[in-house]
Amino acid sequence: MASKTNPIAFLRQVRSETSKITWPSRRETMISTVMVLVMVVFASLFFFAADQLIGWILSYVLNTGN
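The structure corresponding to this sequence follows.
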């Protein structure tokens, strides 16, 4: 069974571990955020176009379109 750590010691360990983290710079964070937003826009446009195309094809095949 694991040994119990008191809350104060646990918080000290957490603080020690978080000091080891290499945090991204503000610039890196902004670049990553913009890249994600651009990819979301591209994916949205792609899936919108694919949905429209499939809808038109099914409409033509099922002869429900004019």
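The first helix runs from residue 7 to 18.
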